[in-house]
Amino acid sequence: MVIISGIFLALTLGVTIGLNFKRIQIHPRQKNLTPETNIKVSGEQKHTLIPYLDTLEIRFIKRILSQEDKLLSVNEANEILRIERLSKENQRQRRHIFLKELNLKLKMIYQVPECIERKSTELDRRSKYYSLHEQISKESIEEMLIEENSK
To answer: Which domain of life is it from (predicted)?
Structure first.
C-alpha cells in the first residue's frame, strides 16, 4: 500500500510540475543570452577574451601568431590538441569540433564568421594550413592575451 501511494504521489507531482513548466516564460530581454564582448574604455571599444577561451584555445592562437607566415599546419594543430596517435578520421573530426567552437567564440568577439581559416598553399594544394582571418589584427589578439596573463 505504501509503495502504491508513493508511486501515485510521484506521478501527481510530475504531472503538476509538467503542466506548470509550460507557464514559465523567459523575459523578452533574456531570449538572446549573449555575453558582453565589448567593454568601453575611455570612449573606445575594447574586446576581451578572458571569460571565453580555455588554455588549449589560447595555445592554438599563440602558435599561429608565433609562425612567421602565420600558417599552422595540420600536424602542428594535431600536436597542440594532442591527437597525433588517433586515426586520421578521428583527428579530422576532433580538429573540426575544436575549430568550430573556437570560431564561434571568436565570432562573438570580432563579428567575423570564420576567424580561423583553413587554407592551402600555392606549392601543394593538398596540404592544409590554419590562419587567422585578415580582418583580425595580430596586435588586438596579442593585447587580449597579455591582459589575460596579467590577471
So the answer is: Bacteria
